[in-house]
Amino acid sequence: MDDGNHQIPENANEHCSGLQSEEAGKADACAGCPNQQICDTAPKGPDPDLVTVAERMATIKHKIRVLSGKGGVGKSTFSAQLSFALAEMDSQDIHQSNLGWSPVYVESNLGVMSISFMLPNPDDAVILRGTRKNGLIKQFLKDVDWGIDGAIIVTTPQQVSLIDVRKEISFCKKVGIQVLGVVENMSELRLSISDFRFLKPTETGDWNDVTEWALSYIRSNALELLSVISCSEVFDTIRGGAAKMCAEMGVPFLGKVPMDPHLCRAAEEVHPCFTDQKCTVSAPAPRKIIKKLVSSCQ
What is the pTM of this model? Predict the structure, then answer.
């Protein structure tokens, strides 16, 4: 945790003055704290690494966080497609440096840095809290060749996600991070007829796959249906979803991204949906969102 001036361990006593405070480990409030000895021997005063972080960040023109108050809303998928779209834009200047850690480059102009690259086993869990977590975040900022103009917040339409995202927006406002906009991911399920699986119930309660028969019938009797897109709301949007929340909280609404199996597959296979002919249902939505984002950053 950070109070804006000093790092405070998550399990610290009430009224903790922070790790960098001259009173760390010595104040009356430190009595009985499990971190007392660590704080007493830790370096005091301003963190010298903050200067390095500021200098390195200064070389990057636009820095954007993708975040959410809720897990499982599609932050990683949206971040990847956002990066692919920005990387393919023409006439963009790329800052390069030989200092610090080198990101893993997915494309010639698209680099990725993750703690998972440093693990001996890709299945290993990362369990970091308090000062260790803060130290790693700081090292990513200080030692990686990149760098925030603001934040994009990703949510899904259901209330359990919007409740958490409201708190995230309030957090950004409180700490001075501009909310560039909110993206409603998985807003609805969109499928072309040819992507459907058709099942027919049996007398025993099982299901027979009759997809080939159904598609053959459509081709013979209603060919125009193959160009129709089916839409189905996965989550209840009767309360207005992310668009209504944005209007109430005074932040931009960037748009909706539908749930599309081909978009999910593009994320799994690490390639842009914009160049995948099968992603014609979902690709226009993130492209419109990214155009809005680029305009707001110029």
Answer: 0.58
